[in-house]
Fold these 3 entries.
Entry 1:
Amino acid sequence: MVAESVKVGPNRYRESYGRYYEDFTIGDIYEHRPGRTISEADNTWFTLATMNQHPLHFDAAYAAKSEFGKPVVNSCLTLSIVVGMSVSDISQKAIGNLGWNDIRLVAPVFNGDTIYAETEVLSKRESAKRPTQGVVTVKTTGRKADGTIFMTFERTVLVPKRGHAVDD
């Protein structure tokens, strides 16, 4: 997490998070912390709130008969949590997400699993149309506490250059 204290007046400072375009270096990897232990309530509430009616996520008797033997955490929830973990490092200052590519769900996540995330900077370039901004592409990996990779995806964000963020 990138945090800095910005002076905004006499004896007054504002906490600021995130990276400017200039702060990204291709090949750098950011380990996002803290991790998050997913509860049964998280999974059930998210599944029902999003109207996902597949019983594998919230019906223990049904899930017991599946190849997993227990409820599986909704993959949209794990995606949301992993993205959220990356925000302070990757997109806290972003103008917007430009795209998502190659979302891969490679292992199930279960209630009670603790998950972590890390992000590698794949590429960056200055925006052709917006001289005060740049385009950064990253690959984020979600891992369980035991090291098992359960998810990967690429994300491209539009990021301001130093001195051009909303909170500057």
Entry 2:
Amino acid sequence: MANLRDIRRRIKSVKNTAQITRAMQLVAAAKMKKAQDQAIAGRDYAEQLNQVLVNLKANVAEGSHPLLKHREEGKELILVISTDKGLCGALNTNLYKKVRSASNAETHYVTVGRKLRNILLKTHKDQIDADFEVKDPVPFADARPISKFLTKAFLEVGYSKVSIAFNNFVNVMNQVPTVIQLLPINGDDLGEKLDYEGVGQVIKETARINVEYSFEPSPMQVLDTLLPLYINFQVYQTLVEARASEHSARMVAMKAATDNAKKFIKELTLEYNKARQAAITAELLEITTAMKAME
């Protein structure tokens, strides 16, 4: 009977775990939908901004703006966007592998998210320049201090390149660890747009449509205003995609955990029934044996 009690306890424990994982799955699904809506809502804005920048760049000299100048020497700075919480599968592990392959011994880091920050503190403690926290869902205002810090680091500290490492959300089952160059801004890539939930569209051709603009007071002054906006929006978009990747990966992981728990409950229930049947059979045999002994 002790064996039966142990099996009942295990079944109860697994059922409680399944309830928790199921609840976490539903919460992650709801948060993922909000992150998707945020990214989709910014598509039209990104397209129009890219169109203006592509045409604006055609009116200024190549490399005339500090944010467009390429440098041959200098260290690289990478903004690493990971998660604050776990239970999202191999999402952070795959991103860390991508960061390692894209960096070198002199690379410096800016972190968003506790998971990879803790890893980088162990391996590159002296090379972390800053750490930022971002709310959920991601407010647009949270991207401003990050983009300002990256821009200042590029202009004043003298980094040769500033990149962003994040998990690009392709669909619910597919999140791709990605590293993109943020600074210096590559004029040839201004019209490109990142994939999002399987509807990835390259708007380069649309952005390069020759539209006649009149710039006041001058193209360079307009560029001074628009480039910070472009950088800020790029940081915001990667934050949103990383957050959508986190919630989708957690939803899938929790669904798998719930399914495994249900499967385990069935196996334990079958084992319990077999043990219970064996115990009943043993009792019947004892009764039968006792009755025969009394004859």
Entry 3:
Amino acid sequence: MSDFSRGFWKRAGQNTADRLSNAVFGDKWARPYKRVTDEARADAIRTRAEAAERRAEAKAYEMEKRAEIAERNQLNAIDAAVLQNVDKVIAMPFAENVSELVNQLSGLVTQLSINSFSKSTAEEKIRAKYTETVYQKLEQGINILLIKDPYNPNMQYIYDAYLKAKKERGKTTRRKALLITWGIIGWAFMFGLGLASEGTPQLLVITIFVSFITAFICLRISRKRKKKDKRRLADARKAFDARQSQIQQLQQEQEQIMTQPVAEQPVVEQRQTFSQKQLLDHLWNKYSHLSPLMQNGYRACQISEQKDILIIGLYCNTDQIVKGKTIYPLSQHERISSLDYNLNGAGINLQSRAAYMDLLPIQSSNAPIEILNEIILNPKMFDYVIEQMSLNQTIMEDVVRPELIIVKSDESWAFFGKNPEYVWMGYAFKTIAKTSYGELCCIVGFRPEDRIQPGRHQTNLLGTKVLFHQGIAIPAIETRKWLNL
């Protein structure tokens, strides 16, 4: 018999014996290697499945992290771009000219119409920063236009667009407020029902009454705000008309006082001296109660006639406040040594040809920042500053008529119209020379924008030289040179 036959029948006998053994005795007589092999195979399959699952989870986690990083990078890029545009909007200066200002505001309106206040997603929250900035800038520009020209033909369109944006901006806030309010009312109502079920129905009535009162108050507040917004344009126009009327009345008063003769004194000197005190008294009686800085009285250098040189300061910077309304001669100026250096020296004496004037004859021992904050930038003092500057211009134009003006403080430049963004007296200048003492200009007329004296169409100071002083002190020899140019 061949080896194959012997092996075959041997294997068949073993399998037959195993079958009989398993049938008679069960697993107790089974060969152990079969069970071990099946369990090992199951463990291996389970291990591979778990490893595959872990690899899938790791891959999914990695992809999720990559997506988060990509999204974060994208949001950071958007945020950087938005902040850059935000800075541009904030830094944008408003034009002094009304037509240019209207064009700027129209551009802001367009920006608001194509951007959204929505903050539903992270990206929308970032983009809403730009929309909010444009809204705030538009509101700021509208405030300026309401002061300058509330009757502008484009005013209604711009203001309606602003109100529409304001309504859109407040939707989220109003929605949250309403949800909170009605949530409180609903909770109170349910609380009242609970009390009523326990035998205290009067508390339910009180709760319902309080709920309705709360809802009514919220509705009234919302309506009042809407009415105030709609009334704002009309109020601005009324205020504008009042200011224009006040300026015209002031000019008429000044013209009457300047031409009013006083008996028993030389006509020119008496008229001007009397006018200066009377006009300053009029301003102090009208406005001094609005600011503590004005309650000590004024201190002004006497101006009574034509002078070739006019030196300008911002305010009466004094070490010791003198109460009362004082008009003093130039020789008693507290900084007379400084003025002497400008007017006298090296055989030169120009004091008799000079006058001095503080644009704001208010006494203060502090830095100019106090005058800036308490008077110039104080909304309550806005009308006073206008009237005071109008009086100053009248004195310069009709009394002093100088050939040379030295503006000693750079805080005063804006009132002459030297800075493009401010008009005030509204002079137009041509630069003659830039020196180590400052910029020397000459007056060539008035700027085309609205001024504090719109009725004065021509200036008496045409060709007058103006030195906007900045830097080292001016010696008398330079003053004479500029005067004789």
